[in-house]
């Protein structure tokens, strides 16, 4: 009963899903109404209200075609909106958010997962803002004109911080009213953002390095610094970020406990980053011989498993309400949804 109430009545935000990437590929194969058919039933079952969809560019298109691919992804999304606007909406400002929630639609915010589409032209950031992009993840786990991405291992070769262009991106994004996302950034870049940013920053989909020591996760020092800006860290359900061994829902909630202890309950959110479906990963649970990564929760329809574990550990409804949406909404309203 309590779980049902949470999923039906709380505003639930998932701050990271590679949705645009997937719909663009599907539409290029001739499929239509991709979100409606492939995603909406799961979103509804999990009680999801807001999704942040990243614009992620496959390495095959770098560098020259990054801009074109980003525009293709946004165009594919706009076509999806035309086909099923009764079910979901692009959220660009506070009025969009309020209308979307009141009408029971799924609200979608757009983010960069790496600024490759800008190449090194700062003027293009404004264009993407006009198209609806509100969150700027400076890098994926690779280098671009703005900064270096982090590795997925315990070691990081690159010690470079933001480039001059990267600093320009942070400043121009903040001027336009965009939110900076540090997930995938290397440590030096992270500290540069902390130094030059003047507003709350987020790590949309990152876990704790103290529990799983890969560079893709955040150190306690980083978690505290990010919390000090007023920002939020979205817990990531991809096995490689959760734990080296036995990655499961319990291990994921260990990250919630740790974030609560280090930063406090007001700085935790969901950035589940479900990958199984989008990247057609061989799931080790279905194929024991595969050593690949997998989602520790099988899609949005199963996030009640997370709720169950949080309740088992004594989290109150007020705390779950913050983790599941209110914390991210607080930052969104402060920085981008005015
Ligand atoms: Zn990512």
Quick recap of the structure?
This protein has 338 residues and is an alpha/beta fold.
Structure description:
The protein has 338 residues and is α/β, with parallel strands linked by helices. The protein has one domain (2-335): TIM Barrel (Alpha-Beta Barrel). Helix content is 43%, strand content 12%. The chain has 13 helices and eight strands. It has helices at residues 2-9, 19-28, 34-46, 66-83, 94-102, 123-131, 164-176, 187-196, 220-228, 239-242, 249-262, 304-312, 317-335; strands at 12-17, 48-55, 88-90, 106-113, 133-137, 179-181, 233-235, 268-270. The strands form two sheets. Strands 1, 2, 3, 4, 5 and 6 form a six-stranded parallel beta sheet that branches. Strands 7-8 form a two-stranded parallel ribbon. The mean pLDDT is 95. The chain binds zinc ion (ZN). Zinc ion binds at residues 113, 184, 205, 273.
Please indicate the percent range of residues in DSSP E strands (runs of 2 or more).
Answer: 5-15%
> Shape from CA axes?
globular
Query: Roughly how many Å is the radius of gyration?
Result: 18 Å
Estimated structural class = alpha/beta
Say which CATH homologous superfamily is assigned: Metal-dependent hydrolases
- Distance between termini? 35 Å
Give the rounded overall mean pLDDT: 95
Which sheet architecture does the biggest sheet show? 6 strands, parallel
CATH topology title: TIM Barrel
């Amino acid at each position: 009963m309590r779980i049902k109430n949470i999923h039906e009545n709380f505003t639930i935000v998932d701050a990271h899903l590679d949705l645009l990437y997937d719909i663009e590929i599907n539409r290029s194969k001739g499929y239509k109404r991709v979100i409606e058919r492939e995603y909406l039933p799961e979103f509804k079952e999990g009680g999801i209200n807001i999704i942040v969809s990243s614009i992620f560019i496959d390495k095959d298109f770098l560098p020259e075609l990054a801009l074109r691919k980003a525009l293709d992804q946004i165009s594919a999304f706009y076509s999806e909106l035309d086909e099923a606007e009764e079910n979901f909406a692009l959220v660009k400002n506070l009025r969009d958010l309020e209308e979307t929630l009141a009408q029971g639609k799924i609200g979608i915010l757009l983010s960069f997962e790496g600024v490759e589409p800008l190449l090194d032209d700062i003027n293009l950031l404004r264009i993407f803002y006009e198209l609806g992009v509100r969150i700027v993840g400076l890098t994926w786990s690779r280098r671009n004109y703005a900064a270096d991405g982090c590795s997925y291992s315990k070691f990081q070769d690159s010690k470079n911080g933001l480039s001059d262009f990267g600093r320009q991106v942070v400043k121009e994004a903040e001027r336009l009213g965009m939110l900076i996302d540090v997930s995938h950034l290397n440590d030096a870049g992270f500290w540069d953002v902390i130094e030059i940013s003047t507003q709350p920053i987020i790590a949309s989909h990152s876990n704790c390095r103290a529990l799983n020591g890969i560079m893709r996760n955040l150190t306690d020092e980083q978690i505290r610094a990010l919390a000090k800006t007023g920002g939020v860290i979205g817990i990531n359900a991809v096995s490689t970020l959760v734990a080296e061994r036995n990655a499961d829902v319990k291990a994921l909630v260990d990250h919630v406990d740790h974030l609560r202890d280090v930063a406090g309950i007001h700085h935790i959110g969901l950035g589940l980053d479900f990958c199984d479906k989008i990247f057609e990963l061989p799931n080790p649970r279905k194929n024991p011989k595969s050593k690949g990564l997998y989602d520790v929760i099988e899609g949005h329809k199963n996030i009640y498993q997370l709720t169950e574990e949080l309740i088992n550990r004594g989290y109150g409804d007020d705390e779950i309400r913050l983790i599941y949406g209110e914390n991210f909404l607080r930052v969104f309203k402060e920085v981008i949804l005015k």
